[in-house]
Design goal:
The chain is α+β, with helices and mostly antiparallel strands and about 475 residues long. The chain is built from 14 helices and 16 strands. It binds 4-amino-1,4-dioxobutan-2-aminium adenosine-5'-monophosphate (4AD) and magnesium ion.
C-alpha cells in the first residue's frame, strides 16, 4: 500500500478510505481498551489522531509506540468523535518501524527549554516549534527564488572558497591544507602560502558581492543565495559564524532603486508566508502571545506576530539619512538622561542600542538609514560629491527592523576607477587580490548597486524567534559545531 503524507490525508478528508501513514509519535494516551496516538510526519504542523482498539488488535501492538517512536499505520479514515480534529484514523494495523525507549529518549511530551533543544539538535525538528520554523525556512527560500525569477534576475553561484576579503574586515576562516604543525616558511619566516593547495591564501567567503558585481556587469540583474562565514567572536542572539545571505546586484541601479528593491523584496516574501503558511504562522503567533502574556505590561509587544507581519507588508519603510538619525538620537530624552551606554556623535558606528532606539522607540517600524560616514563603511561604496571636509559620506544603506536590528546592509558601488583605487590604496588593501574588481571599473564600468540580506535575521522576524540559533537547523557559533 502506498504511504500518503499526513498533510494530504487532512486535506482530502476522504472518509471511509483506507490509508497508510507513517510518522513519529508525538503523544499517546489511553482509556479503557483504546490507545489514542498523535502522529506527525513533518508534512504539516497538524498531527493525525490514530485510534487503536486494543481489544481487537491486542495490547502488544502499541508496546513500543511511545513518544518519538516511528510507526506505520494502516487504517480507515473516519470522522472524529472527539474535539480538536475533524478526521482520525481507526487503525487496522500498527507496525513499529523504530521504537523509542521512554526512559532514554531525551524529548519528553512536555515543553523543553530552547537551550535543551539546541543540545538535542538531532531531535529538535520533531518538535512543533522547530518543524514549523523549518517549514517556514523552506517557504522563504522558495519565495526568494520566486521573487527574483519573476523580476528577471539570474541566480549566480559565487564561490565559497575565495582569495578576497570582500568586506575588508578580516573576519575570515582560513582554508588550507598545509600541515598546521609544520608549515613551509618563506625566507623571512612567514608561512609560505604559495605552497598551499591553491598556491595562495584562501578563506571561506564573507560575502559573494564582489563576484556578484562581475555577474551584474554582464547579466544586468543577478542574485546570490549561499552560505557565508564570519569568524567574528560575537556570541550574541543575532550572530552566526555560518549564515546564509541573499545578495542581489543590479546594473544601472542607484541608491534609491536599491532601497525600493529591498522593501519590495521583504514585503513580497512575507506576503508569501502569509498567503501560504498560515497554519504554521498561527501556531507561532499563539505560542508567542502566550509567552508575551507572561511578561511585565511595559515589556509586552503591542502587536502579535501576524499583526507585525501585516504591518510590514502594508507600510512603506521609513527612510532617513545617517545625519538625521544622529540628530534624532541627540535630541531624544533617552540621550539627555544619559541612558545610552555608548556616546552619540556624528561619525560613530551606530551601536545596536542606537539602532533599537530608532526603530523600536522612535519610529516603531522598519527604517532604512542611508548616507553613512565614509570612514565607517566598506571600501567599495560610492562616495557622495561636494561634501564638507571631515563629513564625507558614502551611498550606503542599512535596513533596520524592530526586534532584529540590521536586516540588510547594502550600497551603491563606486564605479570610478580612480576613486576606488585611491580608497584601496589609502586603506592599504591588497591590490594583488583585487585587480579583477578594479578591472570592472576600467572596462565598461556603469552605475550599479546591491545589498545583502541575512537570511536568518529575516527568519527571526518571520517566526518571532528570539535567538538566531533557533532559526537554522545546525547553528555554528564560537565553540559550537556539534551536529
Ligand atoms: O552588512 P553586511 O556585512 O554586508 C555585506 O556583506 C555586503 N557585502 C552585502 C552587499 O552589499 N552585497 O552583511 C549583510 C547582512 C547583514 O545586514 C545581516 O543581516 C547579515 O548579513 N549578517 C549576519 N547574519 C548572521 N550572523 C552574522 N554574523 C552576520 N553578519 C552579517
Ligand atoms: Mg552591515
Amino acid at each position: 500500500m502506498r504511504r500518503i503524507k499526513i498533510a494530504e490525508v487532512l486535506k482530502s478528508q476522504e472518509v471511509d478510505s483506507v490509508v497508510n501513514v507513517k510518522g513519529w509519535v508525538r503523544t499517546r494516551r489511553g482509556s479503557k481498551g483504546v490507545a489514542f496516538i498523535q502522529l506527525n510526519d513533518g508534512s504539516t504542523i497538524n498531527d493525525i489522531q490514530i485510534v487503536v482498539d486494543l481489544e481487537k488488535l491486542g495490547e502488544d501492538c502499541v508496546k513500543f509506540a511511545h513518544t518519538g517512536a516511528c510507526l506505520s499505520i494502516i487504517g480507515k479514515l473516519i470522522a472524529s468523535k472527539g474535539t480538536g480534529q475533524s478526521v482520525e484514523i481507526q487503525a487496522d494495523s500498527v507496525e513499529t518501524l523504530g521504537g523509542a525507549d521512554p526512559e532514554k529518549y531525551p524529548m519528553q511530551p512536555k515543553a523543553h527549554s530552547m537551550e535543551f533543544l539546541r543540545e538535542n539538535a538531532h531531535f529538535r525538528p520533531r518538535t512543533k516549534t522547530f518543524s514549523t520554523v523549518l517549514r517556514l525556512r523552506h517557504a522563504m527560500a522558495f519565495a526568494i527564488h520566486k521573487f527574483f525569477h519573476e523580476k528577471g534576475f539570474y541566480y549566480l553561484h559565487t564561490p565559497i572558497i575565495t582569495g578576497s576579503d570582500a568586506e575588508g574586515a578580516g573576519e575570515m576562516f582560513r582554508v588550507s591544507t598545509l600541515d598546521a604543525k609544520n608549515p613551509p616558511l618563506t625566507p623571512t619566516g612567514e608561512v609560505d602560502f604559495s605552497q598551499d593547495f591553491f598556491g595562495r591564501q584562501t578563506n571561506l567567503t564573507v560575502s559573494g558581492q564582489l563576484e556578484g558585481e562581475i555577474g551584474a556587469m554582464a547579466m544586468g540583474d543577478i542574485y546570490t543565495f549561499g552560505p557565508t562565514f564570519r569568524a567574528e567572536n560575537s556570541n550574541t542572539a543575532r550572530h552566526l559564524a555560518e549564515f546564509w545571505m541573499i545578495e542581489p546586484e543590479m546594473a544601472f541601479y542607484e541608491l534609491e532603486d536599491n532601497m525600493e528593491l529591498a522593501q519590495e523584496f521583504i514585503q513580497y516574501v512575507i506576503r508569501f508566508a502569509l498567503a501560504n503558511y498560515m497554519d504554521d504562522l498561527t501556531f507561532l503567533d499563539e505560542k508567542l502571545t502566550k509567552e508575551e502574556s507572561q511578561k511585565k505590561a511595559e515589556e509586552r509587544s503591542d502587536m502579535s506576530l501576524i499583526e507585525k507581519l501585516n504591518f510590514v507588508v502594508g507600510n512603506d519603510f521609513k527612510r532617513i539619512t545617517y545625519t538625521e538619525a544622529i540628530d534624532i538620537l541627540l535630541s531624544s530624552n533617552h540621550y539627555k538622561k544619559g541612558k545610552f551606554q555608548y556616546n552619540v556623535k556624528w561619525g560613530i558606528d551606530l551601536q545596536s542600542e542606537h539602532e533599537r532606539y530608532l526603530v523600536e522607540k522612535h519610529f516603531k517600524q522598519p527604517v532604512i538609514l542611508y548616507n553613512y560616514p565614509k570612514n565607517i563603511k566598506s571600501f567599495y561604496m560610492k562616495q557622495n560629491e561636494n561634501e564638507e571636509v571631515g563629513k564625507e559620506t558614502v551611498r550606503a544603506m542599512d535596513v533596520l527592523f524592530p526586534g532584529i536590528g540590521e536586516m540588510i546592509g547594502g550600497s551603491q558601488r563606486e564605479e570610478s576607477y580612480e576613486k576606488l583605487l585611491k580608497v584601496i590604496t589609502d586603506k592599504k588593501m591588497p591590490l594583488e587580490s583585487l585587480w579583477w574588481y578594479l578591472d570592472l571599473r576600467k572596462f565598461g564600468t556603469a552605475p550599479h548597486a546591491g545589498f545583502g540580506l541575512g537570511f536568518e535575521r529575516l527568519m527571526m522576524f518571520i517566526t518571532g524567534m528570539g535567538n538566531i540559533r533557533d532559526v537554522i537547523p545546525f547553528p555554528r557559533t564560537p565553540k559550537n559545531a556539534e551536529f
